[in-house]
Structures are given as C-alpha cells and as structure tokens.
Specification:
It holds the Pfam family DUF7469. With 219 residues, the chain is an alpha+beta fold. The chain contains 7 helices and 6 strands. The longest helix has 24 residues.
C-alpha cells in the first residue's frame, strides 16, 4: 500500500488491550497501523517480500517503513475498536472463527505454492483427521470443503466446537501445514489472515493462543 520514510509518519504507542505493556502504532494521513515485523538494514529484500505478500497477494493495507538502520512492516488497524469490540460473540465462537480463517489461509498457501492437486490432498487429509477425532458436524470431506469456502464472519454457520476441539484442530492443522509446505514458516502469513477479524476478537484469540499449548507452534 505505502512505502514511507520516517519523516512521513508519526510513531507513538498505546496500551496493549490485553497485556500490561505498550503497543507501537504508526499514524499516516489519519490512518493507524500496528507493528507487524522489524528487519535489519541488511534485510531489505526480506522486508519488501513480506510487504508485497501482504499487500499484493493478501490485499492487506500495509506500510513498509524505510529507515537508515532498519525496515519495518505495519498493518492497518481501527484504533477505536482495539481491545473493546468482540461483536457479542462467545469466546468459543471467536476461537472457531479464527481457526477456520487459519485453515483457509493454509489451504490457499498450499494451492498457491503447490497447486490444486496438493490442495485437494490436504483437504482430504484434514477431513480424515477431523473425522477420526469425531469433531462435531464433520462427518465427511464435503463438510471440510464447506469450511474452506464459507465466510468465517458468518459465525452462525460455524461448527459448534469447544475450546478442546480448537486446541486439537490447531495442532493437527500445524502438523499438516508443516508436512505440505516443508517448514513452519507458513504460520506467520496464516496468522496475518486474522486481520479480517474485529480487533477485539482477534486480540482475544491471539492472547489465548499465546497462553495455550500451541504458543510454540503458532508464532
């Protein structure tokens, strides 16, 4: 979206909605962006690659900030909603919504990088795992296919999973994602998909994730 210099922007901090620590934010032309990643001055190529991935491939509103000693990537947020807006959804419902977004993100990465055939095999594998573990409402591969194409924002149509289901799901999704994509680097762009959630709901899920057994997997 934007490639900016330090003099173009204002950087400040706000209280993190879920943690007792400040959160850096960047202001540009009335818009607010949160810090996503920092790169050394020697990592210009990596910084630009991440920025292009988020903007061109994933349609995110992002800033690439160029400074003499570093590069940083920032993603747009709605500041007025930070940490306060959960849309009235249940905690379990928010976790399921985030999980389906991660599923769709991993599936799209496999399809983009490995092709439709590998994506279809991944779909089959995840369906088999969820059926074996008797996940509610997952009785066939068609049920998983429906999850891959549905709008996760339509929370009324999400499966009625509980927190224990979400934990197992994220463990199995990580295992399959790593198997298909060759390493665990897929987790960052997958988590970036959660920017589509309302800020309060995303913060709730990320805080829970960081305190859960999956914190070492999804980071």
């Amino acid at each position: 979206m934007f490639i900016l210099k330090r003099q173009d922007v204002e950087i400040s901090s706000i209280q993190h909605p879920k943690r007792d620590q400040p959160m850096p934010v960047l202001h540009y032309q009335g818009q607010t962006f949160r810090l996503i990643s920092i790169f050394k001055a020697s990592q210009e190529e990596e910084a630009r690659a991440l920025w292009r991935e988020l903007t061109d491939q994933r349609g995110k509103a992002c800033v690439l900030l160029e400074e003499p000693e570093r590069y940083s990537v920032w993603g747009k947020i709605r500041l007025e909603q930070a940490g306060t807006d959960t849309g009235g959804h249940s905690k379990a419902g928010i976790f399921v919504q985030a999980s389906i977004m991660l599923l769709q993100a991993v599936y799209m990465d496999i399809e983009d990088f490995l092709g439709a055939r590998q994506a279809a095999l991944f779909e089959k594998d995840i369906a088999e795992v969820l059926q074996q573990k008797q996940f509610p409402k997952i009785t066939s591969q068609e049920a998983v296919k429906a999850l891959l194409i549905q709008n996760p924002q339509d929370t009324a149509s999400l499966p009625p999973w509980q927190e224990n289901h979400v934990i197992i799901f994220l463990q199995e999704l990580h295992k399959l994602g790593k198997t298909y994509l060759g390493n665990a680097k897929f987790t960052y762009p997958a988590l970036e998909r959660l920017q589509d959630m309302q800020e309060g709901e995303r913060s709730l899920f990320i805080t829970w994730l960081n305190q859960s057994p999956m914190s070492k997997l999804w980071q």
